[in-house]
Design goal:
Elements lengths: L5 E5 L2 H11 L3 E8 L1 H8 L5 E8 L2 E7 L11 E6 L2 H10 L4 E6 L2 E7 L5 E6 L2
Parallel strand pairs: 1-4, 5-8
Antiparallel strand pairs: 2-3, 3-4, 6-7, 7-8
Length: 126
Amino acid sequence: MELNHIGITNKSEEQAMQFYRDFLGLEKTREIILAEELSAQLFSLSQEIKVLVFEKPGIKVEVFISDFQHANPNFTHFSILLDNFADVMEKARRSNVDIIVGSYKDKTVYFLKDFCGNLIEIKQKT
């Protein structure tokens, strides 16, 4: 089995571009308009939805542009392995990207929040 892609929601196309293209360095490879009929069948939402597709070798993220609100607490996230963990952390600080750090005993977990509040867990590739 192999992961094909991740689908997330973002309120703003501009914020999606700033985070996934400009911050993470993924390439925007497609822009799709999900037809109202298909959206209703798949997601019970009767409206057209713009979807931006961002990719890099080994990762594909479909960003659905919608004002949908997750319930609190929101555990939804995806995780990426980084070659350059320290560089990304420094870039996050410079770019005002929220960094969340959780520690318990000998384990530390790091998350970034995109500009819409989606959680992305980051880990150093070993």
